[in-house]
Amino acid sequence: QEKSSRLSAALFGEDCEISHDQLYELLKYAALGKCHNATQPSWCRIHHQSHLAGVVVIVLHEMSQLHFYKFYLQFKHLRKLFRHRFTLAPSTNFLDSLYGAGANLKPQNTAQGLTCVSSERIPKSSDLQCDPIIRKYGEKKRGLTSYTLTLEEQKKNDYPIKGSPGCKGYISTECDQQRTDSSPLFGLDCEMCLTAKGNEVTRVSLVDAQGQCLLNELVKPESTVVNYRTRFSGVTKKMLLPVKTRLPDIQTRIKKMLPHDAVLVGHSLNSDLQALEMIHPSVIDTSLLFARNEGRRFKLKFLAKAVLGKEIQCEEKLGHDPAEDARAALELAQFFIEQGPAKVAELNLEMLLTTEKLAELSQNKAALEPQRYRVQKQLNEPPHVSKPCFLDCLQVTGQKPLLLGRQELDASGLCQSNLSTSNKQILQRALEDVPLSTFSIIQFSLGPEYIASHLLAGLCEKVRSKLTDMLTIYAGPFEESFCLKSVKKEFGRCGPIRSLTVVTETYQPYVCIQYEVLEAAQLAVESLNGAEVAGSCIKVQRPVTAAMLDCDVLIRELELDVENEGMIYVAGLKKSLTETDLQEEFGQLKDLETLFLPKDLQSGKHRNCCFLKFQKSQSAVDALEVINGWTAKGSRLRSRNALASGHLWRWIWQMNHTDGTQGGNIFYEKGERLSQAEQDLRKRVKKLDQHIKKLYRSLQNNTLCIVLFPGVNSMHGSQSGLGLMGIKDDGGRSAC
């Protein structure tokens, strides 16, 4: 059984804040493995990286951690999909810091438009011995039979084989005659669409050894089409409507056209034969013929240009032309057979690909770089050596990164700028293109009208106010001569208190308590409402404001948040207890995985509470029953499900300790209504959440997906970013 990739990370307290270098470290390792000096990230771990199906990064332009929690209820799907979250330091050039700065290699161009390298790069005869083509075939010319795949090679590369379990019902071409070096070659290529069944043929082309097209036919799939893949196949729904030809018709025609000693040629021909549901014993696969190291393969488009001097699969055309691709594969095989391995190796295709990819990337960056930035860069910036961009490395290794977005990406130049493109159009492109790429960066945006500084400032004030209200409880009434020390002691058992004041404007005194963690305030409401404290039977409640009307809903959703799954909060600890003491105290609990003991981020002193993370949710439920009322080193404990165990705990602390704003009792005016801009913003966020859900569900299993709120760092202020990540598993949710 194939192994699944898995992600593990302990993101608590200070460890939940991740720098851009650490994020870069993760993306580089996920994309490249151990190649190009990529190493396992220091702050998290990807298990079985080689089994990753791909990496998808979703960037929410100009959004911060503030947006996530202001619109927490609207991000319904996002918070349910990803278990691992981290705080991200804001950056003025976020995408630059994400990609890294690329290498700047300037190759020469030939008259034919091909990129070439300087003479010192041309391989010497001694170097040819290390070429994978020479190692595989030797230097001497051979006949075509030397280049047909053996049965073992066909099995290894997923070719349909007669009698194999997966090929039940497949049709044989019945070309069983012995092959010779004069056997005829035929080029074959198919275009496929995605249906409920999987990949099905929509167009088939067959060319003979002279390049004459023998077959170029549209085929109607048997199952319902899910995605026509028009950008690649060139096939549309309208084109297939009048088509009557079905797969059995095509199978019959191909059988009749092929002589008994025919050799089929194609690029990754196994996919075409699998889609045709046909078995043919003798094939030449140009993706394997032009051998590379480490199992990598050249793309047909590159080989056609580098070897034949032909441009195919041009971007201005709608989709690929299967007859053109079949002819290109055939001519590549003929070139290889006629010239021999040594001549092919002398082309130095690997170096040619490297220089061409870097040149293409460099041109894209220069073309998309704003003029003002280029001038400023030339005048003001001294030359410097930048770290290599792993996207450059991806392109060098033959992997084509997918970069989709609607905002101009300033100096990075790594993504097409199209200010007229909507999030919906970006989503449609992503659904079509992401499955075809191993590394994708998709950028969504709320639009410039929703990221204005005054709107951001208003959101910040409202979030801070709501957090303050959620951390605050009112208790009372008490007798005139009540003991404040007793009240503080009793409520302190629920968790760390930030401030405690007596309210005297009422007929009888009340106490206003502001806690440092959400769990403490909620525990006080749940356990002390109706209890007798300091000689009085009291009521415990939160402030009643317009913004707090959905507090119970928010608390319930926080409890159900996947980040808090298997996590409980424990209060009433003596401050003298160390982490070692607590490990000893709670070590007997079943499936305990991690213990997190919060501390004041300024003084470094431990708080009188902790969080316990369990491997299984049921073990956390069992632990709650055991701990409530438990006495640890003479201290009676209280516990409940966690609400803000990871990065949110740290963010709340920072929000309440920001210079110049103490939070306090910043309440909404009675009857305050949402502005039209904020109502529209809520709708947009909800729609964006649905886009992410749809894109995530379309991903293959074992895909690492990271959603980034980059944060804001401008002259108007700074807001931390937020990252959510996970590897999609069979259940459609991120795997830990």
Structural class: alpha+beta
Number of discrete helical segments: 27
- The separation of the N and C termini measures 19 Å
Broad CATH class of the largest domain? Alpha Beta
Percent helix range? 25-40%
Approximate strand percentage: 15-25%
CATH architectural designation of the largest domain: 3-Layer(aba) Sandwich
Ranges with pLDDT <50 over ≥5 residues?
101-122, 368-387, 407-420, 659-673
- Gross morphology is elongated
| Domain tally | 4
What is the CATH topology descriptor of the largest domain?
A: Alkaline Phosphatase, subunit A
Count the beta strands. 34
- Radius of gyration over all CA atoms, rounded: 32 Å
Biggest sheet details: 8 strands, mixed
